[in-house]
Please model this.
Amino acid sequence: WEPDVHTNVASRFLMDVKSTRMFAMLETKPQLRLVLTVDVPKSFEQLVYFVRDPAKFVTKENIGEVVFLGLLRGGDALHSLLRQMHGLYVPAVINNTSWPEAVKADFTAQLHKFMANLTETVFEVKGKTILYIPAEHITDAKEASKQKDLVQRLESTIIHWTRQIKEVVNRQDSQDVGGEASGPLDEIEFWRGRSIDLSGIRTQLDDPAVAAIVSVLEFASSSYLAPFLDLRNLIHREAVAAEDNLKFLLCLEEPCQGLVAAHPQEIPALLPPILNCIRMVWNISRFYNTPERVTVLLRKLSNAIIVRCTAVISLEDVFSGEVDDVMETLRQSIQAIESWKQLYEVTKKAICARSPRPWDFSVSPIFAHIDAFLQRCNDLLEVCEAQLQFAPRTPLPAFGGTKGPEVRKSILDIHATFKKLVSSLRVLNYNVLDVKATQWHDDFNSFKAGVKDLEVMMTNVIQIAVEAQSCLPSHMELLEAFQLIAKRDFIKRFVEKKTSEFYAAFNAEINVVKKLFDAVRRVPPKSPILPKYAGTARHAMYLLHRLSATYNKAAQVRYMLPQVPEADEVFAAYQLAEASIQQFMHNTHSEWFTLTNEQSLQRELNANLLTVDKSAGGLLSMNFHKDLLAMGQEVHYWERLRMPIPYIAMEINAQRDKYRVLRDNILMVVRDYNKILTTLDREERMLFNDRIRHLDRRIMPGVSKLDWVADKHALEFYYKEARR
Model:
């Protein structure tokens, strides 16, 4: 039971004076549904008919007495009855001479009334209007007009004809034929049927038997004849109008046949020819070019578009989660509707510019139904987007950090809650695509409110996960994961906000590094273990590495994240900072490279191994220049920084093990010699003066002759002999 449809029909049957019958039947295609109508169905397997007494008002108390019902099965039983009545019973009654005249006259009058109603009912099912012509033996109209009973029967027939013809004449448009599902082809079929029906009535009115009845009533001066004659003349005019309307509407048949089989994406290309045909009808047709009729035709064109879009939209896919194809179909349907409205406006402007009769009628009747369907498509598209967000077909990405398992569980809980919301839509007992089902607004608003709550829950999860990340690269990886699952605009905007916050944090980090770098540049740091130049460059490199890990990750996923204006500024700031640090490292290296020249290094290597400190009482000290020691460390760290090394420095560094062993041995010589001198006091030194002079003769080559590049064997002999 569909309240919006069935209640109106039932109320019309029970309360409208003119609606004394109602039919109920079940349709199985495209789906099982109850059909209630006050018009006689053209075809049926079985139906229940309801008939009420028009003279009585229906109440709860008397409905059983006033309303009668019965069951009719499929077939053409009424037509068989009509043939049997015409072939058997009617001739038997008319030709009967044994009945009293009063009885026969009364029975014949009732028989003609029954036959008129039966004939009307039988052919109404087939969409035809057939006038029942009573089989009266009229040879002289003037004499027949004097028979009171005959005149009354003929007047009863004329009254019935008048009512039949008046109903046909008053049914001048097809607004109620087919309901909201009727399209331009239904309009064409209506006028085709109307043209045939009116032509048939016109032919029947030209029948000699009808002329004889009219003659009798003219002689009888019947008051019922004048309305009938007026209607007969009107029928001729209406038949001409129907034929003319059909002639012009047939130009729409071919393009509209393509429309009824089209996919939504094909509809925009099919509409211009149809609108051109409607323009031609508006400009040339004699009878159809009224705003009312053209409005009906344009509304039926809207209905046809709705029918085609409805046919390809799968509600099962919408609610099951397989939404990729149906989302594309919904977008194509929306595009088709928007194109239809735009083409209408273009056509309207063209008519206003070139025709003296513009389309100045209201568009509300044309687009009210299709606008409601457009909103329904947008609603379903929102359901599909929610499916992508909260019921994805792909597995969740990995969430790092200590909160990773908790984040995953929270998202899965949100997905479970969303499935319950979708289930509430899936079990609705009405067609979601039927815009007359107004209860959809309440159901969808309830669903939408639930989705908004889930969106807030999802943003809370994102907030908690992001706050738990302590380093910027991990922060960026988390944003990448959330961007992959962000489908709804609200969540996308929140991820975009968090992306902006990330770039702001990265920019703050760049500023911190800039301040530290400026401090390094002003006052190079001193380290007890790092050389002066390479140590400064290494410190600058550490500052650069502090930024580069975040930058590399950001550059890797930059175009997978929301595009925010802060990104370009931050990347430009990083590149400036990187260039500045790289230039500083290059300048520091250049300064060291310049100071490291071959002459000074060679002079330092040619220095004697030992020096005697007279002020310290003749103690020895190793004469290995500190610049040579620093150079070894500089070379070591510059090599790790992958910077070029002077050739002489590379040569010296290549012999670092040799110089290290030599320095150790010379230091042992210095230590042993100084230990002897420092152990003896002045008197003891005088006592051992000969031995000390002997020792000095052994030490003296290192003070005056041997240098650091002397022959290896000479050096080895020297420090061994000096320590013996």
